[in-house]
């Protein structure tokens, strides 16, 4: 059976090479007589797997010894809590820029545990159709938190916010993690749920500056304390062993692809096919966000009516393209074009869009 073109927002498409390699390893990993799923997380074989994944994250982003990499559980959603719990220190304000649903959830968690929160900027006035170009930090910020790609609304930060160096910049990069080169030195903490760009659901990659770790609030509950996870190399408790192995395979795929520069070129090409089709459709397809802030990962658009949108999604499915329905909170259509989506998939979708317009425009 042929595989479909998968435009799901997450869990999302994985590289075919990775799936085939995992399949070959599944029953008997490297002649050990068992699968990675059955291995002790304390074995030297698993240690080699997680060490390899750490090393790849560091190589891909060019990280030095001043950063720790962690593979945690609880998803990006638990990071919404862990960040303020560890770093929103007494007497300072946790600063956030609100660019959509996920930012709001991050803000809500900080408030739930009674932290002082300051909204430095928000794009809610135009239903999150843009990325703010200016912000007003509070007098004494503990950190600034941003969401670098807004999976639901389809906007993406194309620049790193310039803030004073002594204020830690923290980013939820779940949906554009490893999709392009970034100036990682500007960030003190980055987190990303694996299921968008680097693996199956089940682990969140956290990249954290050691100098920030030193400033964490002490005495936190064990599983919510970054320092405990760092000291134990993400092995305080049983980690998501098989998922981390899968992430390692995806990271290897990224490196073999040529790294972030090549990945970014490919992502631009893919998004270009679809955005060009939208822009050349004389308004049949309508992009929902400001052009300069369009996400290369999650392409959101509307058709002239909800009936046509429904038909579009179902006809696309009949043509082997799935996952094109917009998020339930915003409606419309959304094509997620993560790293592993083949170029051919984006091209096929753009051709389908043109044909659909010819028939229904
Ligand atoms: C998907 C997503 C999340 C939530 O991730 P979970 O792993 O489900 O907790 C958070 N932030 C962004 C930007 C996302 O795209």
TrEMBL record:
UniProt KW Transferase keyword: yes
Keyword line: Aminotransferase, Transferase
EC id: 2.6.1.52
Domain of life: Bacteria
Full protein name: 3-phosphoserine/phosphohydroxythreonine transaminase
Gene this chain is encoded by: serC
